[in-house]
Design a protein that fits this description.
By secondary structure, the protein is an all-alpha fold. Helix content is 81%, strand content 0%. The chain has helices at residues 5-21, 30-36, 45-48, 56-74, 79-100, 110-123, 125-174, 178-207, 212-229, 231-257.
Length: 258
C-alpha cells in the first residue's frame, strides 16, 4: 500500500504548530492569530496563514478534507505535486483576494484545500465526488458536534476548577497560610488565563466569516495546474468521467423501464 506522504505532511504541518502555540489549550491567543494571518504586518503571513486557524472547528473542518483529498490526489500524481498544489493554491488565492479586498485578513487552509479538491475531481472523479458528498456530512453531523461538546466540557471543567481554587485561597488566607495561598493563587491565574483564551477563542471562531471567492480562487489554481502540467493524469480522469456518465445513463434507463 502506497504511503500517503502528502497527507502525513499536511497533518503534521497543521496539528503540531497549532497545539504548540496554543499552550496546551484548544485555541491560539489573539495576538498569535493576527501575527500569522495574511494581511498582518508580517510579510510571512502569505505563507503561514495556511497552517493556522481561528479555532478547533476551523482546524478540523479543514484538516479532514485536506487529508482525505490529498490521499485521493496522490493516487494520480506525485506527493510533491500535491504539496505544491496546496501551498500554491493557498498563496495564489490569498494574494488575489487581498488585492481585490485591501485590508482583509485571511487565515486557514481552506483555499489550499479547495485547490486539492478541484485537482482531485479532475483526476480521480469517482472517489473525489464521493468525498464531496461524504465529507461535509461527516464534519457537520459528527466532527463539529463532538468538538463542540469537548470544548464545552473543557470550559465547564475549568470553571469548576476556578471556583474550587478560589475557595482554597480564601480558606488558606483565613488560616494565615500565606505561602500556600500564594501558590494556589498562581495556579488559579494560569487556569483563569486558559479559560479566558478558550472562551474568547470560541467566541472569535463563531464570529469569523468565510468567503466564497478565496475558495474559488484556490480551486481555480488547482484545476489549472492539472490542466496545464499533469495532462496524463487529466486524461485518466476523463476516462473515469466517461465511465461515470455511462453508469448514470444505465441507472436512468433502468428507472425509466420500471
Amino acid at each position: 500500500m502506497k504511503i500517503p506522504w502528502a497527507a502525513l505532511i499536511f497533518a503534521a504541518a497543521l496539528l503540531i504548530p497549532y497545539f504548540w502555540l496554543s499552550g496546551g489549550t484548544l485555541y491560539l491567543p489573539d495576538d498569535a492569530v493576527l501575527s500569522l494571518a495574511f494581511g498582518a504586518p508580517q510579510s510571512a503571513g502569505v505563507f503561514t496563514h495556511m497552517f493556522f486557524h481561528v479555532g478547533l472547528n476551523h482546524l478540523l473542518g479543514n484538516l479532514i478534507p485536506l487529508v482525505l483529498f490529498a490521499i485521493v490526489l496522490e493516487e494520480a500524481v506525485a506527493w510533491f505535486d500535491v504539496v505544491f498544489i496546496f501551498v500554491a493554491s493557498g498563496m495564489f488565492a490569498s494574494l488575489l483576494f487581498s488585492f481585490l479586498n485591501p485590508g482583509s485578513i485571511i487565515i486557514g487552509a481552506s483555499a489550499g484545500v479547495s485547490g486539492l479538491m478541484a485537482a482531485a475531481v479532475m483526476v480521480k472523479p469517482k472517489k473525489a465526488l464521493a468525498l464531496l458528498i461524504a465529507v461535509p456530512l461527516l464534519v457537520t453531523f459528527l466532527v463539529f458536534p463532538v468538538s463542540n461538546f469537548f470544548v464545552q466540557w473543557q470550559l465547564d471543567s475549568k470553571n469548576t476548577q476556578i471556583s474550587t481554587m478560589e475557595q482554597q485561597v480564601t480558606t488558606l488566607v483565613s488560616q494565615n497560610k500565606t505561602t500556600e495561598a500564594a501558590q494556589v493563587t498562581t495556579q488559579l491565574k494560569q487556569v483563569e488565563d486558559a479559560y479566558e483564551r478558550e472562551y474568547g477563542g470560541r467566541q472569535r471562531e463563531s464570529s469569523t466569516p468565510t468567503d466564497f471567492l478565496v475558495h474559488a480562487f484556490g480551486a481555480l489554481f488547482g484545476a489549472g495546474f492539472i490542466a496545464f502540467f499533469r495532462r496524463d493524469a487529466l486524461q485518466e480522469g476523463y476516462y473515469e468521467f466517461q465511465d461515470l456518465g455511462r453508469q448514470l445513463n444505465e441507472k436512468i434507463d433502468q428507472l425509466r423501464r420500471r
